[in-house]
Amino acid sequence: MKTEWRLFGGIALFLFVVAVVYAFWTRAELDGVDYIGTTALVLSGLLCAMCGGYFWFVSRRIEPRPEDRPDAEISDAAGEVGFFSPGSYWPFGMAGAALVAGLGLVYWQVWLIIAGLVAVLATSGGLLFEYYTGTRRTAE
Fold this sequence. Notes:
By secondary structure, this protein is mainly α.
């Protein structure tokens, strides 16, 4: 996690510096600050800072991974990575639901936004509880 928080922290710092330079540059060129671009850069920097802060917080509480240790061997990272569902259709449903919600935002149709958000919540719940209910339920 050490690499991740440094990466996000560096990008956040870069975005803050660029936001200041952009604000001064547009003020000199346009006789006024471009508030939309400056705000976008500041918010992007804050988002990267938030991600970097999370990774920094987590990296202090876990043992260093092989990626973070300079004395690590390649074989230290071998083994099981995790469990990934081989035949789940829920991600496809979530993408469709997000598409519906996004189209509702594009055309500003409140009923379509609500339908899309309800579908996103339903499909994310289905993905979350896929192995706790139905035919894929694992025995305890």
